[in-house]
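Re: that backbone. Tokens:
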């Protein structure tokens, strides 16, 4: 990694110094995307998340990072062959044939091939070699940096080390393909009542550790969504948002990786959700508290939100002034309630919430990073494709449903 970064820095500086002003940003963006691709592993994940936020990183960088969703350099045919040979005692003929042609797409963890089986098209997701070791090494590096950063006074009460640890564990769990199969099945079942959402069905008999075979979804095009008519985009995004809210507030089972390589809006108004590799099950308490907090946001009830937040904090320092904290949270919530997507910035809102906890000497609950990561990419899609959506109000029926599942409502 050090070598990759060290060799990239002079190139970046050269481009910054020599490229004509008008295409400097575009050239730098391409260089950064290349660097992230070469770093691979956990860095690819970070690049994919950034690419969902054209509003934050700008069109050039988001565009250049876009290919990291499904056009990462694929593994070689030989590597793919080794992966499937290790997965099956006898490699099914259809899979063997499929590996002779290049993959249809390649993500950070796997390459996906198109195979024929029993007269139908099948997507065969084969895990890249060595990916577990690379992720483990990256997570160790990021963990070390987090421990260093956590010593800075400004980060002292942010649960940075725990957050990095929890996210790292979930990232590492992506290598566990039998687990991903189970999660994909669960996601499909949970969204079965959403007629416009498509989650591919798994083919158990062609899946194993290192290989997942599933229904092939034709015509997936990451950049097609932007060109759809406005009403199709808006219907698609609304449908996606409702599905995500259902998963968040009712199931507490979160797809943390909703970037453009895993979510596709189609011309017929349906939305395809793929890749159950990076999912997180909230504890029942966290699901309830998160849902209650959202209910408070929708009502504009800042004090209620402050109470919920207080009930989730890990620890309160003796010198903490809880009343100041409650006043500040209430103020923030009231300022943010009722805003449509283009006027609400979840990233800034969350940073301010974390900062309020830190300044008021409270230790925040790290588990909430997962719904936040999920909402951050969702918000990127909403702002891009349906900026006038009332992101908060749209949540109301799902929040209500989520609240009815529990009798532990804090008053
Ligand atoms: N069932 C499928 N049908 C068609 N294409 C698929 C299917 N599943 C995945 N793909 C394509 O393969 C890409 C990589 O698959 P994905 O499961 O996202 O792998 P990774 O975990 O590496 O991100 C996706 O971005 C998508 O373009
Ligand atoms: Mg993916």
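Recovered sequence:
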């Amino acid at each position: 990694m050090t070598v990759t970064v060290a060799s990239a820095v002079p190139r970046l500086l050269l481009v910054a110094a020599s490229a004509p002003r008008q295409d400097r940003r575009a050239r730098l963006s391409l260089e950064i995307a290349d660097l992230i691709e070469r770093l691979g592993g956990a860095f690819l994940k970070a690049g994919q998340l950034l690419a969902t936020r054209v509003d934050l990183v700008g069109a050039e960088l988001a565009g250049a990072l876009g290919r990291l969703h499904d056009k990462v350099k694929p593994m070689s045919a030989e590597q793919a062959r080794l992966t499937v040979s290790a997965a099956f005692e006898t490699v099914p003929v259809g899979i063997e044939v499929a590996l002779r042609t290049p993959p249809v797409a390649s993500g950070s963890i796997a390459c996906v091939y198109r195979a024929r089986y029993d007269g139908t098209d099948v997507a065969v997701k084969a895990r890249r070699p060595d990916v577990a070791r690379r992720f483990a090494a990256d997570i160790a590096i990021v963990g070390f940096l987090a421990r260093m950063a956590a010593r800075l006074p400004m980060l002292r009460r942010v649960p940075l080390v725990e957050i990095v640890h929890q996210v790292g564990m979930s990232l590492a769990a992506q290598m566990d393909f039998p687990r991903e199969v189970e999660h994909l099945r669960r996601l499909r079942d949970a969204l079965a009542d959403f007629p416009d959402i498509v989650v591919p069905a798994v083919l158990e008999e062609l899946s194993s550790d290192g290989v997942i075979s599933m229904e092939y979804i034709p015509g997936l095009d990451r950049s097609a969504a932007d060109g759809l008519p406005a009403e199709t985009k808006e219907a698609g995004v609304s449908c996606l948002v409702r599905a995500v809210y259902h998963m968040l507030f009712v199931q507490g089972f979160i797809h943390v990786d909703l970037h453009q390589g895993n979510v596709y809006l189609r011309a017929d108004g349906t939305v395809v959700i793929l890749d159950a590799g990076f999912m997180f099950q909230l504890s029942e308490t966290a699901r309830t508290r998160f849902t209650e907090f959202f209910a408070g946001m929708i009502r504009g009830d800042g004090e209620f939100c402050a109470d919920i937040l207080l009930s989730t904090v890990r620890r309160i320092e003796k010198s903490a002034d809880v009343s100041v904290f409650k006043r500040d949270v209430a103020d923030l919530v009231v300022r943010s309630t009722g805003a449509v997507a283009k006027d609400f910035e979840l990233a800034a809102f969350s940073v301010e919430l974390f900062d309020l906890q830190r300044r008021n000497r409270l230790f925040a609950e790290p588990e909430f990073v997962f719904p936040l990561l999920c909402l951050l990419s969702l918000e990127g899609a909403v702002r891009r494709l349906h900026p006038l959506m009332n992101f908060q109000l749209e949540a109301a029926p799902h929040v209500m449903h989520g609240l009815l599942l529990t009798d532990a409502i804090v008053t």
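Residues 257 and 391 are 19 Å apart (CA to CA). The chain has a mean pLDDT of 87.
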